[in-house]
Amino acid sequence: MKKKHLPGKILLSLLCALEILALTHIAAAFMLKASPVKLAFVLAAAGFAASLVLRLRVPKAARAFTIAVTALFIAAGAALAAVLAGYSASAVYAGGDDGKANLFAGKRVLLVVPHQDDELNLMCGAIDEYLRYGSEVYVMYVTNGDNRVPAEQRLNEALAAVAVCGIDEEHVIFLGYGDWCLTADGVPLYNADGVVESKAGHTATYALAGHPPFRGGREYTRENVLEDIRDAVLEYAPDVIYAVDCDMHPDHIMTSLLFDRAMGEIVAAGSGYEPLVYKGMAYSTAYTAPGDFYALNIGATADPGGGLRAFAPGIYDWTARFRLPVSASSLSRSLWSSSSYQAASRHSSQDEDDRSTRAINGDKVFWRRETGSISYAARVTASSGDAALLTDFVLADTGNASAPADNVTGVWRPEAADEAPAITFTFDTPQTVYRVKLYDDPDPAANVLAARIEFDDGSSVDVTALDPLGAETEIITDRENVRSFTVHVTEYEGAAPGLTEAEVYSAPFDPAVSYVKIMNAAGDFAYDYRIDPSGRESFSLYAYGCSGDIAGYTITCEGDDCRAYAEDGALVVECPVGARCRVTVSDGENGDAAYFENTGSSGLPYGMQLEINVRGKLYKVQFFFLNIRRFAMSVM
To answer: What was the pLDDT predicted at 97?
Structure first.
């Protein structure tokens, strides 16, 4: 072999190897619907096969042919990239809804989450809307996320991610506790006594040199986490708090339950500070939810059923969820141009490329926890059992955050010999008792079937069976000048009756905020909506804190040849093929606006199908290198 020809032969051999590799992936091209791109890939595949034959049969022609085919392959790749880039840029949803001031404007909002990326699992898209309306948004991270990745990397990723959302670094609070702290015998920090060392080898709070923790050098104890959460809430005094609930992770469970205990201490202090509190999931409705992002219209968060919480899932009734709209401008029919994805991608050490298709939806769901119960100021006694469990703001507790479903605690239960179980609330001054909320034992085999609320004036209210899975049961009592009342459990099933919480309110429920959102028949919120190809589709209003009767709203439609009107209690939108319009509904205080377009097809756009196929291949490569990086970090 002549040495002067060796480099060329090596290059041709490498190209041959690449061609063989490309042939293994060429079948994906046949799933593409756009004929120009598909044709380019098919021609390249045919060229690769031909070049292999030429290399064996006519070596002199192989070089030129290989160069030509390689050029064609590069051109096909460039065309693919151009098509994807063009589609992605044009796929962002149009915004334009300015009718949510009652919900989003003028607030100081705090997110309480365990890990860096949970802020997006909990609130992606909704953060943008609060900021768009001029509210302040703060994020409190309880841990440093330093289990598999150095804290410095995770914390810097968090700062970069929230910056994409528009949150100032000064509004980021690092409590600085270890990620997934367990004792030597596997007891999680939430249930441990004394100081616990994290998997990263730390025993005290830390963060970044330029962004220190809320309180530096705090030992890793349950009591310190509780105190820091409580004191941070009091220091920043948010109007609205969104806190993670009990996902299937010890850190999430710890964050949720210690936040609840902190709120219990705050409201029991009687200072009058009563923020709006909403609890939501980072796992079941986001991180581990179905990857349903790719749809003609963005869908609602899917109901995870019995997998909603790590334990006692029935505590929250899905039909009673609070559906928070997101910013239309954070949505897109291309994942790559979604601002929520762009924020999530800053968490480069995490598997956010795939997870974003699960977390981005047309709503974020929560459950309101009222903070104005007068039971916290009452003297609460019971015929037997620990009555303090009824007014600690914790709906259900666990004796082991690593196996919570098998260790449910925090439930008031009378002693076995107690034949007349009862709870008495006594007030220092006469109170109005308008409604009472009782939360049954979440154990489906132990249920209160009947009860009686007896007041000090001799009157009473009969109570039917409580929700058997532990969700709230509200009883309207409407009594004035009450100094005391007693809840008598008169019938139950199981070994003993049980309650996790008892709340008492002096007035009807106050939603505190109000808004409406246009919604299709499937319950999906409409933002930049592709209407049924028939040109006619009916919608309703999702209303919170106001009327959902479309008859009480003024309807306007901007767009040639389109119509929007009320008919038989529904909002009807008519839009011929090729037309686009903007529909607004308003009652003078609350309103919504959405775009509607008729493309003449109910199928996914070609660009979306192309992106799905390309992303699938890129994700496999990315996930491979992510695991290599994680392994390298684990052995360093």
So the answer is: 87
Q: What is the pairing mode between strands 240-244 and 108-113?
A: parallel
Written as six digits, the tokens of 489 are 């459990």
| pLDDT score recorded for residue 490 | 98
Which residues, in sequence order, are CB contacts of 257 under 8 Å at separation 6+? 190, 246, 394, 397, 398, 401
Average pLDDT over residues 275-292: 96
- 464 pLDDT higher than 90: yes
Per the structure block, which two tokens stand in for 327? 């910013």
- Residue 416, CA distances (Å) to 406, 411, 462, 495 in order: 22, 15, 24, 8
pLDDT at residue 35, as a whole number: 44
User: How much is the pTM?
Assistant: 0.89
Q: Where are the beta strands (DSSP E) in 168-315?
A: 172-177, 240-244, 276-280
327 with 132: CB under 8 angstroms? yes
| Dihedral of the alpha carbons of 66, 67, 71, 72, in degrees to the nearest 10 | -30
Neighbours of 569 (CB within 10 A): 12
According to the model, what pLDDT value does residue 48 have?
Answer: 61
- Spatial contact of 255 and 279, defined as CB atoms under 8 Å apart: no
Residue type, 433: V
Task: Report residue 348 as tokens.
Answer: 């480069």
Whether residue 378 contacts residue 425, with contact meaning beta carbons closer than 8 Å, is answered with yes
Find the radius of gyration of the CA atoms of the chain.
29
Reference 298, options 528, 464, 482; nearest CA is 528
Listing DSSP states for 454-516 in one string gives EETTS-EEEE-PPPTTS-EEEEEEEEEEEEEEEEEEEEEESSS--EEEEEEESSS------EE
Residue 630: per-residue pLDDT: 56
Does the pLDDT value for residue 32 go beyond 60?
A: no
